[in-house]
Amino acid sequence: MRVGALLACPLAAALAPCGGSNVALVTPMVAGSNAVDYGALRSLLEWHVECGTAGVVALGTTGEASTLSGEERDEVLRTAVDVCGGVVPVVAGTGTIDTERAIAMGRRAAELGADGTLVVTPYYVKPPQAALVAHFNAIADAVDLPMILYNVPGRTGVDLLPATVAELARHDRIVGIKEATGDNARVAVLREQCGDDFLLYSGEDAMGREFVALGGDGVISVTANVAPRDMQTMLANPNKSSSIKIDAKLRALHEKLFVQANPIPVKWALHRAGRMGAGIRSPLAALEPQFHEDIDDALRLADVDVAPAAEQDAGANGVAAPPARAVSGASA
């Protein structure tokens, strides 16, 4: 990892997206009503600031952004900026299938104080590469924020190829990419074609440490929701023996947080850790019981305390669970 990509984050006067552990933040919801729990959201954000998380990515897939109203999106982003503003950069997910809608959401994110945007490739319609260039450049021209491209062909059905990324990297406002292809060989190709200043993020927690060790800048991480301090420590020095040990400790979390569609398992894990209620919105649903033990075991292996049964019962019945007591190890 290039040291400057990580250190630039806390030192910048006007915060910009940076390397390290950038949490793909969940949106806490009250079980039963599934109303957004802004108190729990604030607590989670304060915890991430305390733990040294390098960046917060709100309103993405993990944040169930597609199920939020415009008013809820605004309030989630306001809360993130209020807690993290000037300390940790806040990136807003503003990608959608329609270019004009993506522009509108990006401009709204700028109005609310976001430090950058994360823009996924248009899903389902499978644009050709030239159309992707036109789409992203149009957004970058219209939205006065740094943009991180998001390539996740397994969800969208379209792969943003390295040559296309290199063309887009010429735009002053397109500053990086989240690569969720599962192919760490792309790190060297993207670095060569896009230059040293272009931020490369992995979207695959299980491959994230290796991605950064190979020359990437960071991870936009689901695991960081549960083990923020460990993720940041590991990615700051990915080749150290201590970082390799952290990665091994988190291995079960990296894997079990995807036993069902994201964010189902990670929201259940945070509920089990006593950090929020169990709410999740349709068309998703709470983690199926046959996977509960897998999550509990992964949490314990990562040195994350599981909340007592009474607290779990409260959260499952629509009352936000209280923050968990300090966890052991580096994951606090």
From TrEMBL:
One Pfam family named in its UniProt record: DHDPS
Example of a GO MF term: 4-hydroxy-tetrahydrodipicolinate synthase activity
Chemical reaction(s) catalysed: L-aspartate 4-semialdehyde + pyruvate = (2S,4S)-4-hydroxy-2,3,4,5-tetrahydrodipicolinate + H2O + H(+)
EC number, UniProt record: 4.3.3.7
UniProt key word Amino-acid biosynthesis: yes
InterPro entries recorded: Aldolase_TIM, DapA, DapA-like, Schiff_base-form_aldolases_AS, Schiff_base-form_aldolases_CS
Gene Ontology BP terms: diaminopimelate biosynthetic process; lysine biosynthetic process via diaminopimelate
Pathway(s) this gene product operates in, as recorded in its UniProt entry: Amino-acid biosynthesis; L-lysine biosynthesis via DAP pathway; (S)-tetrahydrodipicolinate from L-aspartate: step 3/4
Keyword Lyase part of the UniProt annotation: yes
Domain of life the protein comes from: Eukaryota
SMART domains the record matches: DHDPS
Keywords in alphabetical order: Amino-acid biosynthesis, Cytoplasm, Diaminopimelate biosynthesis, Lyase, Lysine biosynthesis, Schiff base
Family the entry assigns: Belongs to the DapA family.
Biological role stated in the UniProt entry: Catalyzes the condensation of (S)-aspartate-beta-semialdehyde [(S)-ASA] and pyruvate to 4-hydroxy-tetrahydrodipicolinate (HTPA).
Xref: NCBIfam families: dapA
Protein's UniProt name: 4-hydroxy-tetrahydrodipicolinate synthase
Species this protein is from: Aureococcus anophagefferens (Harmful bloom alga)
